[in-house]
Amino acid sequence: MEKIILYGAGGHAKVVIDTIEKAGLYQIAGILDGYKPVGSTFYGYEILGDESWLAANLSTVSSGIVAIGDNWTRAAIVAKIKEAHPHFTFISAVHPAASIAKGAQIGNGTIVMAGCVINSDTQIGEHCVMYTQSSADHDSRLGSFVTFAPKACTGGNVSIGDYSVLSLGANVIHGITIGEHTVIGAGSTVLTDIPAYTIAYGTPARAVRIREQGERYL
């Protein structure tokens, strides 16, 4: 079984660890996290250090996943890992209780949690997070570093730009386009296209204000 490194030691990482363990395809060799003491343990795994640990251990492990919930922070850690270890391979992890339809594609670094549904010919980009019971219907396109919170869902032929978020229970009807770096608020229903760099919420969802690149949403 291939050994991997997991970066992150917070609540989100616990669910990623559970998904990897349940899938049974990889063995977690340890955790990287710059805020935890080296040698301590998290969820049964040793904290090995931060991303600089990779440069000193190239022969030990060369693949893994970043378990950070915030899209922009996750992207920054991915960039640091690539800098420390240019040939590092990011794995995807799919919980066995998820449903992945024929023709669906899942990018490297993406986590698909229990109860998630990805329907036919939908493409999920790299380093996305599909939380518990979220769903993307047929022929949809998600960019990279996108997050679907629990029970967020889309109809078919929906396009979601890079770094965007569907919050808890948000719904997007078929054929809608949501731009990059946009956050759709919890419980919202999206009936029209939403531009990039926007915070929108309500039923129907309406743009509330402009959102800055990298602005936290968690």
Report on this structure.
This protein has 3 helices and 25 strands. By secondary structure, the chain is α/β, with parallel strands linked by helices. The protein folds into 2 domains: 2-90, Rossmann fold; 93-209, 3 Solenoid (UDP N-Acetylglucosamine Acyltransferase, domain 1), CATH 2.160.10.10. Strands 7-10-13-16-19-22-24-25 form an 8-stranded mixed β-sheet, with helices on one face. The model has no long low-confidence stretch (mean pLDDT 96).
Keywords, separated by commas or semicolons:
single chain, 218 residues, alpha/beta, Rossmann fold, UDP N-Acetylglucosamine Acyltransferase, domain 1, 2 domains, 25 strands
Give the beta-strand count: 25
Contiguous low-pLDDT stretches (5 residues minimum) are: none
What is the fold named in CATH at topology level of the largest domain? UDP N-Acetylglucosamine Acyltransferase, domain 1
Main β-sheet, in a few words?
A: 8 strands, mixed
The CATH architecture of the largest domain can be named as 3 Solenoid
Mean pLDDT: 96
Radius of gyration: 17 Å
Distance between the termini: 34 Å
Query: Helix count?
Result: 3
Principal-axes shape call: globular
Topology as H/E string? EHEEEHEHEEEEEEEEEEEEEEEEEEEE
Which band does the percent of strand residues land in?
A: 25-35%
- Helix/strand class: alpha/beta
The strands making up the biggest β-sheet line up spatially as 7-10-13-16-19-22-24-25
Residues in helix, %:
10-25%
CATH top level class name of the largest domain: Mainly Beta
Number of domains: 2
* CATH homology superfamily of the largest domain: Hexapeptide repeat proteins
